[in-house]
């Protein structure tokens, strides 16, 4: 068949006509096929005849007892089934994509989010959306805002909201609260106390995250750090605890780090409490991708304190249930 004729034929044959041919091939009878399709037999016969005219060959041998596929009909019906299956598969995938059940979410996070929040949140999301890929990358709070604005990631969990140029294009919602605790070696005098005061921490050798990585947290800790006898910088909570275990000073940690105690260390409360900047989830306000909306919907169910604010700030999420599916 010439290429021009083939293009014309492809334009002339409609999906419904492919369904008609497949139905007749399966039932091997025009009347039974018409009944299955919910149409009249004469109408079905005319549609199949139209396809045969376009092809220039018969697809069926008509007999008194029904129809039999010709050699051309066998080939055509097989390809018609494949086309219909592909169209249906495409429609299914399109619906899944619209519901946020396919695609991917790129998440940046501070290491502290792995202590309590992320293990349960990500497990819940993966259970509800097994078809959505999760790309996770550990980033400091300072790095996460820039990566989010650059489009390198889809959302971040940081210590405090991302700040700086372009931050007005982001939506940030607190997802967990923490207060300050201290960690020290078992041989340190603080290890025998039920709690220490901020004044007692002044003059100590302290271990804390660098200001360049976690500016919001370090601003809260600035009065303690400025009065320390020395400050050792550590980018990760595990490193803070490890250095305290080595006797290099008193580590400053979020209260969630109580889960990470080591045999050589003791966690000590700070009283009166010093509240740290909240763990905050942030994303580009204009990002309307279904996978992100699905993740936010799961967050709303997992972190109830976020539900009202996320529903108000991101209306596209409020119409979804806790699995990120339309209600």
TrEMBL record:
SUPFAM superfamilies for the chain: Periplasmic binding protein-like II, Winged helix' DNA-binding domain
Coiled coil start-end: none
Keyword Transcription: yes
Pfam family for this entry, one: HTH_1
Signal peptide start and end residues: none
Alphabetical keyword list: DNA-binding, Transcription, Transcription regulation
One GO cellular component term noted in the UniProt record for this chain: protein-DNA complex
Residue ranges of every copy of the HTH lysR-type domain listed in the record: 13-70
GO MF term list: DNA binding; DNA-binding transcription factor activity
Entries under InterPro entries matching the protein: LysR_HTH_N, LysR_subst-bd, WH-like_DNA-bd_sf, WH_DNA-bd_sf
Family, as annotated: Belongs to the LysR transcriptional regulatory family.
Protein name per its UniProtKB record: HTH lysR-type domain-containing protein
